[in-house]
Design goal:
With about 140 residues, the protein is mostly helical. The chain has helices spanning about 1-10, 10-30, 35-55, 55-65, 70-100, 110-125.
Length: about 140
């Protein structure tokens, strides 16, 4: 879905949109914690889809914007950093839940990342270099 959207509305818009959806789902989880299970699960599924949809967009952006001589290295660094952040989040979230006394609001810890990422992608969208992305769709 991310590739399809990137080809239609642009890479930065798609990535920022997915990150906003992901951050919003993380924010909503605490409010839905004691609500109807079907709604909680629906938001969890949307979150699961949106949280992975931006990853390929970052890799594509690196290949489009990076110096051709160093694209392999840049992709390695980008993927390594992404996996490291994921491992850190997986390790830190249960500790945060213990710290605050339960899981209900633990996912608030995950809200700032996608919001900052969305802001960064929208900032990138305004740079002239972004015209090299997604066939000029940014």
């Amino acid at each position: 879905m991310g590739g399809y959207l990137s080809d239609r509305i642009g890479r930065t818009a798609t990535t920022a949109g997915m990150m906003i959806v992901s951050g919003s789902c993380a924010l909503l989880m605490g409010f839905l914690f004691a609500g109807p299970l079907w709604l909680f699960m629906l938001v969890a599924v949307v979150w699961g889809i949106s949280v992975i949809g931006d990853s390929a967009q970052f890799s594509a952006a690196v290949t489009e914007l990076g110096d051709r001589r160093f694209v392999g290295t840049a992709l390695s660094v980008q993927l390594g950093a992404g996996f490291a952040l994921t491992v850190l989040a997986i390790w830190l979230t249960p500790r945060f839940a213990d710290f605050i006394g339960g899981w209900r609001w633990a996912f608030l810890l995950l809200v700032p990342g996608p919001l900052l990422g969305a802001a960064a992608m929208l900032w990138l969208r305004n740079l002239p270099e972004s015209e090299k992305m997604a066939g000029g769709l940014r």
